[in-house]
Amino acid sequence: MAQYENYAPYVAGVDSLEAVNTLFRKVYQYMALGLILTSLTAWLTASSPAMLRMFYGSSAPLIIVAVAELGLVFYLSATIAKHSVSTSLILFGVYSVLNGITCSAVLLVYTAQSVYSAFLSTAGMFGAMSLYALYTKRDITSWGSFLYMGLLGLIVAMMINIFVGSTMAETVISVLGIVIFMGLTAYDTAKIKTLADGMGMNDDEAVGKVAVIGALSLYLDFINLFLYLIRLFGKRRD
Question: Considering only CA atoms, which of 215, 221, 188, 230 is closest in space to residue 34?
Fold first, then answer.
């Protein structure tokens, strides 16, 4: 996940509530933009015979897209301070489009009703965890090490189950994935709030960069939560 501490020097204290509102307004706007791009790309890919032939005719194109996604998200997280806000947004947009291509498989495998239900459930759970992180007095940022250890264990379990192919293990992995990404939603929201809390937003460029990296983290939480929910509850097409 993205690290926010590197951007704290760019902002100076003025008004806590104003700083939080300013930053989160941008974060959610950018996140919504990414989700819209991903949804449109997934729908266009799944509904176009030419796109289906291009990306599902063999495994190579999707592997290339997946590798490009992984490289881009790490590159953006590590180098965002060096880019302008507009460049960072373009990179985030490109990532969202690439992710839409890989997520198109969801539309091919699961029924439309399952996709809608999973999306709405994700939105509700994501919103609840974000609101909790914004208004609770608990120190959610202390959850970080536990959540990252859980995420690492989840990845290892998924890799092992590729070879084992256990249905029970897949169910357990999906449940754990939902719990972990609900926690990460609260954690990332709290990290953004911690950065903004007690700080003014005097540097629009720096605020924009923080908003992009925050939007990227919450976008990833939302997408992963959605994927685990649909794997657990989604109905496959006949």
Answer: 215
